[in-house]
Amino acid sequence: MHLSPFFKKYQIELCTGRKDENEKERIWRLHFVPFTGCERLYKGNFYYPVFLKNSCENFVFLVEHLKDVFEVKFGTLELCIGVEIDDVKMKPYVEWMNDFNWESGKVPALSVIARDEPSLKFLLKNLKRDVDQMKIDTYIRKENPASKSGGNPKCSTPVNFKVDVLTGNGEEWWATETMKSMDAIRMDFYQSDLSNLDMNQFLRSWKEGASNERLKEIKLPLRERVKWRTMLEGLDADLRDFRTARKIFRFAKDNQLYQLHGGFDITRADGRIATIGHELYNLIFENQPMEQYKIEECTRISRVWNLEQGDEEEEIEDVIVLEEADGHVADWRKYQRKQGRRHIFMIVW
After folding, report:
1. How many Cβ atoms sit within 10 Å of the Cβ of residue 6?
2. Where's the Sdz-33 F-box domain (predicted)?
């Protein structure tokens, strides 16, 4: 069963599915729309609108009833939060998630599309149930006059729930305190507002054993180019020789085997070791040779790391040397490698 509140044309969509006698999955979608008295009733092949005077108050009853009728398990709870959704409208759904008798004891999957910062903050602040898989995509415009609060909308306070797998877009809401309190096993973001100093704060907490004991994987880009001296300051990080230090592993979300060349090792207080590095430069597919530009970048990182004066880091790491290529190809490679200096991974062995 997929639950999708807060879409523009209707307030709630309940999508249920089960297999018929021919083992084909059948899907029912029902729209629960706030009643205004001027709606046109329409029934299509896949959608059936149900008009209610207050769909929020009837939400729990409807979910329980449809679950019994269709005898299906919950799939993904989807929340599409726009600027028209305030705390009053959010509250019934958050309370339902907290109080519902989830089969595993936690929300199986929660997908959030947020276009409004205060409502996203309300969700993060008031959700009390742990989540198995959580994806948050944000489309918040800071200059949007409809936003109910100004300034930086990043959520810098701890939350009251844990997440096993956390993915999506970390812009506008994700901060180190959120990372620590969510205590995710795996984090995979395609964008974030984190800086080198933010990551240093997070890694210090992890190293000291103060947070994120469950952590196994991180993949994310910083908002700026990685500066290893800044990020790893005070962590006693050990730079592994990319020419001799090699490990074979796979990320949890795919079956592809990777070779890890080099990277920085950090030892936690309990003895566990994590390796952190560049996703583009330190990782290659199994049984493939290490390309020349990756060798050059790893050599450059080693040279910068071993400098006695850190003020040369800017000049050296801002240089990108390209092999001969056509104009568009050269531009793309330069962009790719420049972006690659923002993306990091972390594996806890």
Report:
1. 24
2. 167-219
Alpha-carbon distance 303 to 298, whole Å? 9
Domain locations in the chain as residue ranges: 1-73, 75-193, 237-349
Tell whether the model's pLDDT for residue 206 goes beyond 50. Answer: yes
pLDDT digits (tens, 9 = 90+) for 55-107: 556 666 777 777 777 666 777 788 888 777 778 878 888 988 898 888 889 99
Nearest to 3 by CA among 48, 59, 52, 44: 59
The whole-angstrom distance between residue 283's C-alpha and the CA centroid of its chain comes to 21
Strands (E), the chain: 2-5, 12-19, 25-34, 47-52, 77-81, 107-114, 131-138, 163-170, 186-192, 217-221, 238-239, 246-249, 258-261, 264-267, 273-278, 283-285, 343-348
The CA distances from residue 72 to 93, 166, 192, in Å, are 20, 25, 36
Cα–Cα dist 297/308, whole Å: 19
In the chain, the amino acid numbered 69 is: V
Distance set, CA 176 to CA 154, 279, 317 (Å): 10, 21, 26
Give dist(CA 226, CA 232) in Å, integer: 10
Tokens of 235: 């962590």
Place of tokens 């207050």: 54
SS3 state at 101 = coil
CA proximity to 55, closest of 38, 31, 29, 22: 31
Residue with tokens 């030892």: 267
Within 8 A by CB and 6+ apart from 7, the residues are 13, 80
Contacts of 289 (CB under 8 A, 6+ apart): none
Calpha distance 129→331 (Å, rounded)? 47
Confidence of residue 144 (pLDDT cuts 50, 70, 90): very low
* pTM, entire model: 0.82
pLDDT tens across 169-195, in order?
988 788 899 999 999 999 999 999 999
Structure tokens at 52: 């209610």
